[in-house]
Amino acid sequence: MNSEDANPTGDIDLAEIPPGQILSAVAAARKAIREHPDSAEAYLQLGIALRSGGENQQAHDAIDRVLTLNPHLSNAWLQKGLISINGGTLKEATVYFRNAVQADPQNISARLELSAMLFRAGDFTGAREQVEAVLRVDSNNASALGGLGFIQLQQGDLQAAVENFRKAIALRPRYPEAKQNLGNALMRLGDWPGARQAFDDALKDEPDAIPAVYGMGTVLRHLGQPADAVKQFAKAKDMLQMVQALAQAQGADNNGVRMWNSGDLDAAAASFRVSIAAHPAYAEAHNNLGGVLWQQNKQKEATEEFALAVRADPKFAKARNNLGNALMVAGNLQGAAEQFQKAVDLEPGFANAHFSLGLALAQAGQKDRAEAELRQALVLAPNFAVAHFELGLLLASGTSTLSALARSEIEEGIRLDPKLKTALPPAIATALSAKH
Hints:
By secondary structure, the protein is mainly α. The chain has 23 helices and no strands.
């Protein structure tokens, strides 16, 4: 279940913000906060924009500020739950969604998310209560109808499940999960032709859906097409093996991250290599291995791993940023800038990538573009110390005097991170120490 077609109460837009609008949304929210420092709604809009841009920690901080200002704001609890899901803390997410529902029983999105969490925990009764509450408010909510159908399927109420799946599909024609579940319900009712049509429709939407492929194999066997059934079962088996390999890779990768965080770089690298052996195209493990190798001063090997991560997943913005940093250290400024640009194109809310692109452009002599990127980084992360510092140095470059703006940026960077003072060029340090 998801909240794709939910209709939250209130005036806050809780939909994902399109990538091209994230920076403007963050900037607008920060402007609203400057004008109204105690506005819970402004902080909520900031949290939504930052979460949409992938900046989960900053989004978390913004939502915590919302709840400090207004602990009864339902949509803030909803956002906190969504951020927790992004971080993999599902038990916490369940608590936050429940808080959202308690704060506003009419919050459809919160009820749908809570239902999904309860279902995952095996609480079918609780999950059903939530979707039925949604349907009392919005009888044509496709997500709630699909969720209710799935619960009915698990509980053996097959005819009711079929009816609800069909209603959900009519409301949302591209709904592969509902089509798969419809196929399963029809199989259990012995309607093999109907089940075949349902699985065929599901596979048109999602060709690699293992339940639909396996279901199609079962249907074909019952319809007297054993050769075609065998092909479907073989396909499902191959896909399942890939899923199992990915699960093994993820487990080893998670263990590697724990070792890395504990400071045991050798053990972390070994775990990441186990992950890659289980699933050679697992981009996350390549990227993490690259990070460990970089800390071990194995820059060439690290760069190769970052490149493998990008090859495995061309949309992996963090790996592109890491590859760009490695290329910049190696002196390949053009290659670095290309990777940074692709990273910000993929994730416009990725502050570090904007910062990295700004540095690369500054080194390439493109001062105006560099300044714009550094400012973008600071829109997303106002307390980004080194971004303030580098922006100040950029503004001071090519001039004989230290402007007030350059001075303020450098001083803000040093205020946020006093260690940056050691990186001051001698002439700038002298100018800073002089009276304003």
